[in-house]
Design a protein that fits this description.
heterodimer; A: about 80 residues; mainly alpha; Non-ribosomal Peptide Synthetase Peptidyl Carrier Protein, Chain A; 4 helices; B: about 325 residues; alpha/beta; Peroxisomal Thiolase, Chain A, domain 1; 5-stranded mixed β-sheet; globular
Chain lengths: ~80, ~325
């Protein structure tokens, strides 16, 4: 079970790989869409990779609720 | 006791003898679409990878396009129309369910009363039809099968729906399938196919406007995760490994799906120098026509050569999917 710091670090690596955003810029308060400029298809790719990495399920309707990086970290922490 | 039936002798396997394709001349650019719906060239290129597409005028029918592509494939094969004894048209966009496209197309190209039927597996249709043709030849039910993927998707679009009108397009691609005279000559591997009917709502024609509707995100997730395993199954069934694949021609649904499938195959041993079809950039998503269009275009550009090993994989409405390994003619 990864703690929140580990989840954030792992998620940042995925975001970097999918969207080419430096891991240092992927912080909890950032909005995926408004701050990181990640589109809906990239969000799906991030979700798929996060599912593999953290052993969680992130269905599309849940994914739509994850507005910030922190939302995603909390969701993964609760559901892993 | 019933009498024993005599069966056709059959063939060791089948191979592709020729390819052909046809697209309407009319080019529709992203800027053209941006005049009609709220979108932009940059948005379309980023989301789906399309720069322009071909849209048929009202007086150019699906059968017109199928016939032109089919005639070109027969010419390329070195056969004549009278050698073709079976015609399969993979399509999901005929204006009406009756009559089918295949019989009209066969008559148009001058084939003499061949077996003729349409096959609807949407964007997977060409791979389904190619697998069927290969097995018909192998079983001895047919000698030379003309397989055509032809679509006029423009008839089934809401041109005010920016989620679909930017993606889909018209065109046709064809292959002639004939017998391999020995096992070394076999050029079509076993088909790996399947379906996910529990997701049938994800891509469908809406009854209220007879227009195609797609749950983009759900289809994207499905295609980027479920199609690479189908492709790997096709490779395994052919007795090959991912490193044997010279060229990957997935259905041209979305450039990002194409890239995701290629990436997953490379993670399983496909080569970095495996060439990957990107015909969607200038052709759009032409459903069942996209794979033979892409293969024919790549061959014309010298990006795939005679004798090379090509992996085809189609996927789409149904949901349905199919793939096989073939040798480029």
């Amino acid at each position: 079970m990864a703690d929140n710091t580990e989840i954030l670090a792992g998620l940042a690596e995925i975001v970097e790989e999918v969207a080419g955003i430096d891991t240092a810029d992927v912080t909890a308060e950032k909005s995926f869409v408004d701050d990181l400029d990640i589109d809906s298809l990239s969000m799906v790719e991030i979700a798929v990779q996060a599912e593999d990495k953290f052993g969680v399920k992130i269905p599309d309707d849940q994914l739509a609720e994850l507005k910030t990086v922190g939302d995603a970290v909390d969701y993964i922490a609760k559901n892993q | 006791m019933s009498p024993a039936f005599r069966l056709a002798p059959g063939a060791p396997g089948a191979r592709i003898l020729g390819l052909g394709s046809f697209q309407p001349e009319n080019v529709v650019t992203n800027d053209d679409l941006a005049e009609r719906v709220e979108t932009s060239d940059q948005w379309i290129r980023e989301r789906v990878g399309i720069a322009e597409r071909r849209i048929a005028p009202a007086d150019l029918s699906l059968v017109d396009m199928a016939s032109e592509a089919g005639a070109r494939a027969i010419k390329d094969s070195g056969l004549t129309a009278s050698d073709v004894d079976t015609v399969i048209v993979a399509t999901c966009t005929m204006p009406n369910p009756i009559p089918n496209a295949a019989a009209q197309t066969a008559a148009r190209i001058g084939a003499t009363a061949p077996g003729a039927f349409d096959l609807n597996a949407a964007c997977a249709g060409f791979c389904y039809a190619l697998g069927t043709a290969s097995d018909l030849v192998r079983a001895g039910s047919a000698q030379n099968v003309l397989v055509i993927g032809a679509e006029k998707l423009s008839d089934w679009l809401d041109w005010d729906d920016r989620s679909t009108c930017i993606i889909f397009a018209d065109g046709a691609g064809a292959a002639v399938v004939g017998a391999a005279s020995n096992t070394e000559q076999v050029g079509i591997g076993p088909v790996a196919w399947g379906s996910a009917g529990d997701m049938s709502d994800a891509i469908r024609v809406l009854p209220e406007n007879n227009a195609l509707h797609q749950e983009g995100q759900a289809v994207f997730r499905w295609a980027t995760t479920k199609i690479a395993p189908v492709a790997l199954r096709a490779i395994e069934q052919a007795g090959l490994t991912p490193a044997d694949i010279d060229v990957l021609v997935p259905h041209q649904a979305n450039l990002r799906i194409v890239e995701a499938v290629a990436k997953r195959l490379r993670a399983k041993g496909a080569r970095e120098d495996m060439r990957v079809a990107d015909d969607i950039v200038y052709s759009g998503n032409t459903s069942s026509a996209s794979i033979p269009l892409a293969l024919d275009h790549m061959r014309a550009e010298g990006r795939v050569r005679k004798g090379e090993t090509v992996l085809l994989v189609g996927f789409g409405a149904g949901l349905s999917y199919a793939g096989q390994v073939v040798v480029c003619p």
